[in-house]
Structure formats: C-alpha cells, structure tokens
Amino acid sequence: MNKAFIGIGLDSRHDLFKQLLEGLDHIHKKLVVHRDIKLENLLLDPFGCVKIADFGVAAAYIAPEILQDAGYDGFPVDVWSSGIALYAMLCGRLPFKGKSMSELKRCILRGRYQCPEHLSAAAQQVIASMLILEPRSRATVKILLSHNFLQEGHSDCFCIFCPFQWILDIR
C-alpha cells in the first residue's frame, strides 16, 4: 500500500478524488488545463481540503496521446492523469510500470493494467472509463461526477493553488 495513504480510509480517498474532479471541473469551465495531475500535486490543507499544485511532470501519469506526440486536447489528458491518481489511491501502486522510460511508454500505449480483486465494480468502471487510450472516448469530468461511485460522500471545500499564485475557490 502506498505509504501516503496508510491510515486514510476508503471513504476519505473517495472524497479526496471527488474533490479533485470538482477542482478539474472548475478549471476546465474556465478553459484551463492542468496537464500534470498526479498524487504528488495533490495537497491537503488542515481541514482535509484538496489543493491542486504543480511540481513538475511525472512520466507514469502521462496520457498516451502526449507520448504519441501528435497533438492533443488538454481536458482528456487531465482525465487520464486523474484516473492514474485514482488507481494509485485505491490500489497503492501505479497501473503502468517500466524499468526505463521506453518500457513505461510501451506499457502506457498498450493501455493494459490489472485491477485488484478488492476494488468494487463501480471503482473499476470509473477507472476503466478514464484510462481509455482514445481521448475522445474517455469519460468527461462531468460524466465522472455523476457516476454512482462518486455519489456517496461529499466534499465541503476545494481550493486550487495555481503555479502563478492564483487562488480559485469553488465554493
């Protein structure tokens, strides 16, 4: 299990992921794309509210369309990276691994990963809808927020720390 999530219950991880999606929904409505969603960029304030930051690119979270270097739409890229983050939150590891960058790239471009048996069907559905190789077929943030997986629990706050020191409050 990822050390960052030891002691954080499944309900809390569920709520943190919902906060992430609410933040992405907010910035996407403003036509802003983050392009680097990863666990290391998700910070918690003293009240348990997620802050999205940016500390540089991590190869394991890169969407396949970026690796193909053929141009891409940013919103599906954020959904892919969020799917990687959700998988890591629930499974304690990343879905794609490689001993070298070229091996990692091959794994991502194949798009095959294994979900542990302990994941609920709803969690597996959400992850699968986010980790689709074809960006236009990937779920949108709006669709994800309406999924029954995210209807349980609620988040009371969400703030975003942008690289340019702008603070965007959703509520």
From TrEMBL:
Limits of the Protein kinase domain: 1-150
Q: Gene3D superfamilies annotated for this entry?
A: Transferase(Phosphotransferase) domain 1
Q: Name one Pfam family in it.
A: Pkinase
Give the highest taxon in the source lineage: Eukaryota
Q: Which PANTHER family match?
A: MAP/MICROTUBULE AFFINITY-REGULATING KINASE, MATERNAL EMBRYONIC LEUCINE ZIPPER KINASE
Cross-referenced InterPro entries: Kinase-like_dom_sf, Prot_kinase_dom, Ser/Thr_kinase_AS
Q: Which SMART domains match?
A: S_TKc
Q: What is this protein called?
A: Serine/threonine-protein kinase MARK2 (ELKL motif kinase 1) (EMK-1) (MAP/microtubule affinity-regulating kinase 2) (PAR1 homolog) (PAR1 homolog b) (Par-1b) (Par1b)
